[in-house]
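hey can u check if this looks right to u? its 293 residues, i copy pasted from the old doc so theres a chance i mangled smth
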Amino acid sequence: MRTRIAMRFAGITVGMVTALALTACGTSKDSDKPSVIASTNVWGGIAATIAGPDATVTSLISDPSADPHSHETSAVESAEISDADLVVYNGGGYDEFIEKAVSGMNKRTVDAFESRTDKSDENEHVFYDISTVSAVADRIAAALGEIDSAHATAYADRAATFKSQLGAITAIATKIAAEHPKTPVLQTEPLAHYLLVAAGTEDLTPHAFQEAIEQETDPAPAAVAATQDLLTGKKARAFVYNIQTQDKITKDLRGIAQSASIPVVEVTETLPAGEDYIQWQTKNAQALAAALS
């Protein structure tokens, strides 16, 4: 079993860090505003953008060193989920802790994975899929509008504004696809899968390697050797690297990529400090474009 750089934590204390425009503090019991609980600050950030001043949003995971795959719900978090008017999460097994928490509750939820437009694509990292994020924005606005009809128009308007901003990210990916069609790339794991698909790239990463890394097991020597050969042979134009999930194997591969003058595109699973979703994904798309230019 490989070791993630991120230290895993079993729960988050009541006093969660509040990030302006990304994660609003939880509601007090006497608040008349709808309360939203999100599994990570990615979905919490999107929900907060749509909620504006009319609802409160709390993200259970906002620490960039945290791992949603292995998070376990604390008693405090379970209570917050139970009390929330709306729960927004990734789904698809990505944030299983919150899927388990809501499974026995009669709770209004927005499951991003179930909202994806292409049901044939089973990659769970749908926060990199702009079309799915757009659909989730509409679902959050609709849910909040049902809970709080007095501000339904405001929720819908903020969702529309957010969706219009997503267009700039799609435009970057579309330009990459037009200027660099089927450009070969490698990944440490399929985190940025949807970005690479939108950009029209060809992911050469051996499936056995990606699967092992994602499942936190050691890849077979043959899978590692095959990936190394692709890098030393300069078969890829960019190496997409998840900085929140790295070990000796992935670090060694990064070193090989750098020695071969293959640009490394760093990606993350949670919002970097001080950035909202639009800024985050715009930078990711721009970094990929720069690497392939």
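The longest helix spans residues 152-179.
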